[in-house]
């Protein structure tokens, strides 16, 4: 259910919302415990949801055609959106927590899009 919340609140609202951040925070708390790492990782939709948050909050994803009054690219201003930043931080924390488990680490490495997503963190 948390993966579905993350996906729907990120993709259908134009970016992460406070609900996205809360769902990522719940996953972050679950992924801390050694006994839940594998369960969280293997839950269908979780990895894709986390990678979607990273993609939606990436500077590469956000438009850079306009500049702010200060001459900065619009994407930099968008990244200063506290909701997007918090969702991104929480999603990164979940991925970090999940990678601590050796079994997860190996399968995360081959998960489609994972390496590319962390390279642009």
Automatic annotation (TrEMBL):
Q: Which InterPro entries match?
A: ARM-like (IPR011989), ARM-type_fold (IPR016024)
- The organism sits in which domain of life? Eukaryota
- This chain belongs to which protein, by name? Armadillo repeat-containing protein 8
Q: Which organism is it from?
A: Entomoneis paludosa
State the taxonomy lineage. Eukaryota, Sar, Stramenopiles, Ochrophyta, Bacillariophyta
